[in-house]
Amino acid sequence: MSKQFDVIVIGGGPGGYIAAIRAAQLGFNVACIDEWKNEKGGPAPGGTCTNVGCIPSKALLQSSEHFEHANKHFADHGITASDVKIDVAKMIARKDTVVKQNNDGILYLFKKNKVSFFHGRGSFVKAAEGAYEIKVTGAAEETLSAKQIIIATGSNARALPGVPFDEENVLSNDGALRVGAVPKKLGLIGSGVIGLEMGSVWRRLGADVTILEGLPTFLGAVDEQIAKEAKKAFDKQGLKIELGVKVGEIKTGKKGVSIAYTNAKGEAQSLDVDKLIVSIGRVPNTIGLNTEAVGLQLDERGAIVVDGDCKTNLPGVWAVGDVVRGPMLAHKAEEEGVAVAERIAGQHGHVNFNTIPWVIYTSPEIAWVGRTEQQLKADGVKYKAGSFPFLANGRARALGDTTGMVKMLADAETDEILGVHIVGPMASELISEAVVAMEFKASSEDIARICHAHPSLSEATKEAALAVDKRTLNF
Fold it and tell me: Which residue, 39, 168, 292, 452, has most beta carbons within 10 Å?
């Protein structure tokens, strides 16, 4: 006999647990199934983001940044710090504690909102009488049933063909977060978010880091001016980034990993490293979902096919997050999860893909929302651009970090903000003002006329808005 629910959510990552909680708040009887395990075999909801992605990587970035500041920047503030060392085991343990706190927080929210949690893998059994049977395979096998199913099973790291992850020498994002000692030489394939963030962590702690990128341009999705500014900063830090490479044979052995590749000039090269992190993207995760049992449609990438409202080809079945089209971002999954729960309740869920922010948590941080200058040019859109450097910002000077700028793009005729791009300190926090402004279709003049606290980094956003119309208040 199956247990009856109104809504079953398969997957407890950002899209799944948020969808489950919102559906419960709307009065539905909700179950959430998630198979992530902690080191003791207990439940660890939160998906890739909480367990091996956003949260643990930020913990390591923070620890490594403290270490670098103590070694290289404290003296500028008159602080003497000698013989500063890093205890990698303790750093990793702190990261694990942060992860567990987030796992436990989600379980608490489930309990508070009366969401029934099932620890195991959820898979379709059959469709019957307007409902779907879902099997939970875990410590104890159970069968659940509901008319509404939300799939939020996330994504997995993409491996290089013929080079599987062993998480000892060849690492995915998972293994990169569990390295037990600082490698003397670290290689990364892919200069995206994961590559840059993990490269930054271990570079700060003393590793000789080389990043191999197949594309001829650095951060092709980022505004070109911002990407160039970021590249200059990374080069200055000693992060070696080779663009336009073609990776060949990769050999692993007791001494590490050997990578043969061709550089941008077509010259044969080799790189020997202690560890290799592969960060060439992610693939939708439908493993074990048994989609064929109900005829759930997948596309050529293996993603679940959905429409603009996250509806699949099956009545009552929805999908959100990394397992569907669109950017693989935790906050995008959260927005879709809330929207689907509200649509099930007959409300009008809202997700605006044009105002989803992107962030790379390196130093300097890189954040953007909306279109880049190169996209506007390609689309033939008439625009105005304004930028302002943190070098001229008083708060940035006081922080001791004047790298980067804020850049704003606005429609030439209406002055509506079309994109905001930031490289510099706390860009991840500053970008939110731009998201709010664009969601309300604000003009650059609106931002220019809003009072910003002084001194603050946000004044750079105001100055960039003023610069759109070739004005400035900064003398």
Answer: 452
The residue among 152, 154, 137 whose CA lies nearest residue 312 is 152
For 248-264, what is the mean pLDDT? 96
Q: What's the pLDDT tens digit per position in 119-159?
A: 999 999 999 888 999 999 998 899 999 999 999 999 999 99
Q: Is the pLDDT of residue 240 over 60?
A: yes
Measure the CA dihedral 309/298/33/288, to 10°.
180
Nearest-angstrom CA–CA distance, 74 and 66: 10
Between strands 7-10 and 148-151, the pairing is parallel
Letter string b/e over residues 133-172, b meaning 16 or more CB atoms within 10 A of that residue's CB: bbbbebeeebebbbbbbbbbbbbbbeeeeebebeeebbbb
Catalytic entry in 119, 348, 421, 454: 454
Q: Is 119 a catalytic residue?
A: no
Q: Do 409 and 371 form a contact (C-beta atoms < 8 A)?
A: yes
Q: pLDDT, tens digit, for every residue of 270-298?
A: 999 999 999 999 999 999 999 999 999 99
Q: Are 184 and 274 in contact (CB under 8 A)?
A: yes
Residue 65 phi/psi, 5° resolution?
-70, -40
